[in-house]
């Protein structure tokens, strides 16, 4: 497969599952740039941005009529650089401007059934019968290390069985 110069960065981000940014998934909903989900542990998550919040401005430039590609381009950037984002919160309709410092965001590809009180994945699906659950969302550069760690946690907890969920996994670096 030929990957042209304009697609190389996107290809590398998909393979590595990491990029410089603020850690939010966004979409255009009803014509407005909307946060679908902040990634746990990222600058956006720590700043309190939530699913449903609407991004009104990026660096004091209106997002009205913005394309998804352009919005993502404005928010991504080199780690340790700032980006100012103005949002209207979905829960109280209050406008807030936050300055987020971009970080190297690593998208987890090894997920559990639920998160514990510290926002870490809990891979034990059933603690009584000691059934572990691991969902692999893609194969990236770090998937094997993450998988090894998850299985190690489960084994140290006495795992007797494991559900390895590969549904909707598009593949990747294998």
- The SSE order reads HEEEHEEHEEEEEEEEHE
Poorly predicted ranges:
none
Count of discrete alpha- or pi-helical segments spanning 4 or more residues: 4
Radius of gyration: 18 Å
Average predicted confidence as pLDDT: 91
N-to-C CA distance: 16 Å
Order of strands, widest sheet: 5-4-6-7
The share of residues in helices is 10-25%
Q: Which oligomerization state do the chains in this entry correspond to? A: single chain
Relative strand content: 35-45%
Please give the largest β-sheet.
4 strands, antiparallel
What best-fitting shape do the alpha-carbon axes yield? globular
Please provide the count of β strands: 14
The helix-and-strand class reads: alpha+beta
Strand and helix layout:
Layout: H1 8-16, E1 18-21, E2 24-29, E3 32-38, H2 43-46, E4 54-58, E5 61-62, H3 68-75, E6 82-88, E7 95-101, E8 103-106, E9 110-111, E10 114-115, E11 121-122, E12 124-126, E13 131-136, H4 143-156, E14 161-165
Parallel strand pairs: 13-14
Antiparallel strand pairs: 1-8, 2-3, 4-5, 4-6, 6-7, 9-13, 10-11, 12-13
